[in-house]
Amino acid sequence: VIKLETDTDEDYFLGFNRAYGVNSDNKQADNLVTLIKAGSNGLSYSQSWLLATLDQGQSYKFRKWKGMRRRDLIITVNAIDVTKSNPGYADVTLKYIRSSKKKNNPKPKPAPSPTASSPSISAPSAPSRENPEGRNPDSPRMPRYT
């Protein structure tokens, strides 16, 4: 188990949930890396939340780790081996990366100002089998009153 210290009362814990021995009857996350958030600074009982279960090749990204504006923490599971060794192991990398300056959700640019134009009128089409009313297909349909 690895504790990811946040300098707050809530920290993160990274573990390998090996389904072996007393853990062989797991109901969730067998042989996967788990990421858990827990309170009380990890020192006593507190509520905890399972944030992610990661298989080999998967990653989890903390944006702005510990409040750092341009630094993310990425957890990557490189490999999980439960066949060659007992009880097995997970090879995990934790890496800081610089966040890009580009925002993920940029604000949309304002629409250009409307320009004046003269209205256009479409001439009706001649009636046909596909268009028995002779109506221009691009113009809105008007209700009929009888």
Could you describe the 3D structure shown?
By secondary structure, the chain is mostly beta strands. Helix content is 0%, strand content 34%. The protein is flat, with a radius of gyration of 30 Å. The C terminus is likely disordered.
Helix-strand blueprint:
Elements (H helix, E strand, L loop, with lengths): L1 E3 L6 E7 L14 E7 L9 E7 L4 E4 L8 E11 L7 E10 L48
Antiparallel strand pairs: 1-2, 2-3, 3-4, 5-6, 6-7
Task: Provide a concise account of the structure shown.
The protein has 146 residues and is an all-beta fold. Helix content is 0%, strand content 34%.
Counting DSSP H or I runs of 4 or more residues, the number of helices is: 0
Could you give the count of β-strands? 7
Please outline the major beta sheet: 4 strands, antiparallel
Secondary structure: helix percent: under 10%
Nearest-integer average pLDDT: 78
Give me the Rg, rounded. 30 Å
What letter string, H or E per element, gives the SSE order?
EEEEEEE
- Taking strands numbered 1, 2, ... along the chain, how are they ordered across the largest sheet? 1-2-3-4
Shape: flat
How much of the sequence lies in strands comes to 25-35%
Low-confidence stretches: 117-123, 142-146
Give the terminus-to-terminus CA distance: 79 Å
Secondary-structure class: mainly beta
Key phrases:
0% helix, four-stranded antiparallel sheet, mainly beta, 34% strand, 146 residues, 7 strands
